[in-house]
Amino acid sequence: MKSFKQTVLFTLLLFIESYNLHAQVKPIFENGEAQIIPARKDSSNWIPLELFINTIKTGL
User: Is the model's pTM score more than 0.85?
Assistant: First the structure.
């Protein structure tokens, strides 16, 4: 039971902290154009991700 409580507490704290960090980074728009977000400028902190989008033609 103690392990379960620790896991729940850890998960809750992790969620709160990640929510706080995410809330600090907001998009910036000037003259209708998106600007570089200073907190996301350094690409070494980015999570590498490969994305494949498959489109299907239907009805044409």
Answer: no
